[in-house]
């Protein structure tokens, strides 16, 4: 039982505090106290200052918010950043990315690429991310060491992949990883069947049974393009979401990534099953995949989160930039300037992300009892003045260079823009070395 009278470990005094829950609130002259890695106090500044605290820090000109949740990505693909640009999804995937993965992806690649992705994400204000890539058992190590929070998906495809000869082996290894990490305080293992077109009914059934038994989430690329729907109708006679619903995959633990194609029946299936949608606007734009109807989903009551996707289709892991794109795009798609306002856009990248990953009891908002997962954005720059609504300024007028400090579980992982536990120069050297090897082989063709 935590001792509520014990001194706080840290008392933060920002200019603005945005708890995200309740929605739309901006607190002025408030403070947040941390004890044992959790939010222990949220109170007006003068009241908070009466509490004993081991350290008190003023954060002038800064907005304190829950750290961001990047709900979809392929972390180690940072090492393929810029390898195959300006191509449609299936050409990009089948002709470039899958051959490159077959050639280059091994344990070292995953370790180095994941570490690079973690560093980039921490510097961009992300305290929690979802990873869906090969050798998740290797990715778990940099996640553990760095202090970031993550959902780690077991990649499942019906063909040989780096790390698994077939789906059966991927699932066996995945269950072992689930067991190993069962008690990890910051890593949650989920199932990651790649997409409806790459996973058979038999494999889907195994995923369904295991996910149910282990109470694990299912994270899947779904309805990414109109081509995917057309191919599925030809093959199965129904749209992919209908097939997944009939096979019992949908539910509150189901995370449908992309969903650029949505008819009335698809929407009803998502609403009834209480599934989440993870919107990846920049990847969808770059691969010309389509537009996720965020406002329609939101108004129907679907939990919509946001992700960057991998750095090979984005090409960065900049969630703040992604939120801005999402907020602008939603207006264009809905034909309404009120669609996805700045406050809702921030909620999508925090609490909705946490909820999609089943982590909303732990992170995603600034509420007493939750883990102290926080980010301080510096809004004192020239291009951010004057400030009427700091959330508007954050979403529409700020870049990730305004991220100053970040804590996960009360541990400071970014201080004044610098990583506290990772060596940036070493990471850059390693990435350049991979780039030289991959680039030289690519040019030889
Ligand atoms: C088992 S997941 C890893 C697998 O997914 C590939 N991938 C990356 N981005 C996308 C995307 O937007 N749609 C479909 N597949 C994608 C990645 O290259 C890996 O092969
Ligand atoms: Zn993806």
UniProtKB/TrEMBL annotation:
Signal peptide: none
Cofactor binding annotation: Binds 1 zinc ion per subunit.
Keywords: Hydrolase, Metal-binding, Zinc
Binding site for Zn(2+): 72, 74, 221, 309
SUPFAM superfamilies cross-referenced by the UniProt entry: Composite domain of metallo-dependent hydrolases, Metallo-dependent hydrolases
Enzyme Commission number: 3.5.4.28, 3.5.4.31
UniProt enzyme class: hydrolase
InterPro entries: Amidohydro-rel (IPR006680), Deaminase_MtaD/DadD (IPR023512), Metal-dep_hydrolase_composite (IPR011059), Metal_Hydrolase (IPR032466), MTA/SAH_deaminase (IPR050287)
Function: Catalyzes the deamination of 5-methylthioadenosine and S-adenosyl-L-homocysteine into 5-methylthioinosine and S-inosyl-L-homocysteine, respectively. Is also able to deaminate adenosine.
PANTHER family membership: AMIDOHYDROLASE-RELATED DOMAIN-CONTAINING PROTEIN, AMINOHYDROLASE SSNA-RELATED
Protein name: 5-methylthioadenosine/S-adenosylhomocysteine deaminase
Lineage of source species: Bacteria, Pseudomonadati, Pseudomonadota, Gammaproteobacteria, Pseudomonadales
Gene designation: mtaD
């Amino acid at each position: 039982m935590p001792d509520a009278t014990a001194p706080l470990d840290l008392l933060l005094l920002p200019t603005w505090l945005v708890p995200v829950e309740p929605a739309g609130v901006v607190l002025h002259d408030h403070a947040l106290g941390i004890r044992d890695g959790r939010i222990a106090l949220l109170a007006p500044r003068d009241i908070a200052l009466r509490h004993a605290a081991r350290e008190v820090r003023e954060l002038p000109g800064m907005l304190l918010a829950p750290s961001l949740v990047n709900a979809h990505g392929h972390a180690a693909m940072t090492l393929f950043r810029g390898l195959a640009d300006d191509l449609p999804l299936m050409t990009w995937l089948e002709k470039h990315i899958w051959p490159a993965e077959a050639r280059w992806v091994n344990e070292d690649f995953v370790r180095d690429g994941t570490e690079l992705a973690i560093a980039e994400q921490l510097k961009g204000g992300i305290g929690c991310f979802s990873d869906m890539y090969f050798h998740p058992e290797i990715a778990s190590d940099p996640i553990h060491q760095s202090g970031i929070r993550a959902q780690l998906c077991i990649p499942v495809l019906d063909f040989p992949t780096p790390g698994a000869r077939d789906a059966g082996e991927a699932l066996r290894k995945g269950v072992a990883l689930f067991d190993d990490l069962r008690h990890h305080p910051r890593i949650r293992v989920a199932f990651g069947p790649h997409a409806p077109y790459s996973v058979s009914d038999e494999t889907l059934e195994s995923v369904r049974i295991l996910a149910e038994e282990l109470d694990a989430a299912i994270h899947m690329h779904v309805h990414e393009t109109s081509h995917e729907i057309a191919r599925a109708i030809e093959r199965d006679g129904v749209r992919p979401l209908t097939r997944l619903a009939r096979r019992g995959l949908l539910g509150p633990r189901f995370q449908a990534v992309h969903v650029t194609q949505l008819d009335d029946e698809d929407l009803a299936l998502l609403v009834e099953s209480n599934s989440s949608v993870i919107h990846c606007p920049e990847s969808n734009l770059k691969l010309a995949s389509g537009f996720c109807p965020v406002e329609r989903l939101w108004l129907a009551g679907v939990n919509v989160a946001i992700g960057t996707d991998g750095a090979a289709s984005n090409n960065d892991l900049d969630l703040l930039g992604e939120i801005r794109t999402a907020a602008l795009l939603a207006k264009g798609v809905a034909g309404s300037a009120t669609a996805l306002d700045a406050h809702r856009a921030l909620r999508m990248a925090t609490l909705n992300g946490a909820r999609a990953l089943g982590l909303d009891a732990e992170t995603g908002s600034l509420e007493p009892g939750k883990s102290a997962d926080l980010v301080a954005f510096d809004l004192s720059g020239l291009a951010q003045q004057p400030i009427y609504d700091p959330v508007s300024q954050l979403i529409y007028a700020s870049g990730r260079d305004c991220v100053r400090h970040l804590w996960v579980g009360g541990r400071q992982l970014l201080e004044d823009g610098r990583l506290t536990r990772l060596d940036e120069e070493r990471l850059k050297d390693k990435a350049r070395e991979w780039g030289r090897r991959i680039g030289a082989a690519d040019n030889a063709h």
